[in-house]
Amino acid sequence: MKRRVLIGSAAAAAFARQATAQEAFPSRPVTIVVAFPPGGQADVVGRPVAAALERIWRVAVPIQNRGGAAGAIGNAAVARATPDGYTLLMALSSMALLPEAARVNGREPTYTPDMLAPITLFAADPTLLVVPAASPISTVEEFIAEVKRRPGQVSYSSAGNYSALHVPMAQLAQAAGLDMLHVPFQGGGPALTALLAGQVQCMASGPGPVAPHIRNGTLRPLATWGRTRLAGFEEVPTLIEKGFPDCEFYIWVGLFAPVATPAAVIARIRDASRQVAGDPEFRRAMAASGNTLDHRDGEAFLRFYTEDAARLVRVVRALGKIE
């Protein structure tokens, strides 16, 4: 009996400590991992999210850029992190397809999507096809004609094989029968730098990183991968309008935690994320960066994520193995 009492007391004490820890969350800095170098879509959205969370929580929320393997390294790091809410992932849509890409190429995935719990969606914009403003190409038709005129010579940059910047270009190549030269980089930031430096001729990108360069006349948008035209770029046609019904791709940005994170901690992060979505400074930052705020959480985000992940897996399987 005495032993049972001691065990019961220990369990009660442990429960009390856990409850106290959850009530106090966050009591120290919360790190948000971006699985790419600075300058890409996840980084552009992640930094104003972190700044808003710092205002709400009154603790530091540093961004940690952990690039490599098209995002798989950073994604896996968070998937395997201590599930206490203090290490979160600002993920791109490619998070859902990279494990399938590993399998297609005969490798064991370093993580699986079910190791990460979706918390909040902040943006879900279609990618934009952009070329330098100095390019003689000004329409989708001219772009396709140029690629067909020079098969294998028109190059595009991406954040790596099967990344959220590679897959839409591969979709277009399949749909239009194009042979383009893929030049993968370690993230969207370096991929954009390569385009601006004239090292490649085009790229697909989320609107955030390229919007300032479109506004200042450095880049020219040719089309989007959306079902409807993108807000703020209403003059830019969709590829669906141009006769490519299968060219639909959204580069979404959402916050995830390791799946075993306590429900009470997830709830606190979700509640704070709702406050972020309504924060005036955050909304101004999103508008200035060219991103459309698309806040969804709970069942709404889970439904969106599940449906999109299934579609992306089908795309990866169609792409097949990449040497």
UniProtKB/TrEMBL annotation:
Q: What is this protein called?
A: Tripartite tricarboxylate transporter substrate binding protein
Q: Which domain of life is it from?
A: Bacteria
- InterPro entries listed in its UniProt record: BUG (IPR005064), Bug_dom1 (IPR042100)
Q: What is the lineage of its organism?
A: Bacteria, Pseudomonadati, Pseudomonadota, Alphaproteobacteria, Acetobacterales
Q: Where is the signal peptide?
A: 1-21
Q: Does the keyword Hydrolase apply?
A: no
Pfam families with a match to the protein in the record: TctC
The UniProt entry's sequence similarity note says: Belongs to the UPF0065 (bug) family.
Q: Which UniProt keywords apply?
A: Signal
* Gene3D superfamilies the UniProt entry points to: Bordetella uptake gene, domain 1 (3.40.190.150), Periplasmic binding protein-like II (3.40.190.10)
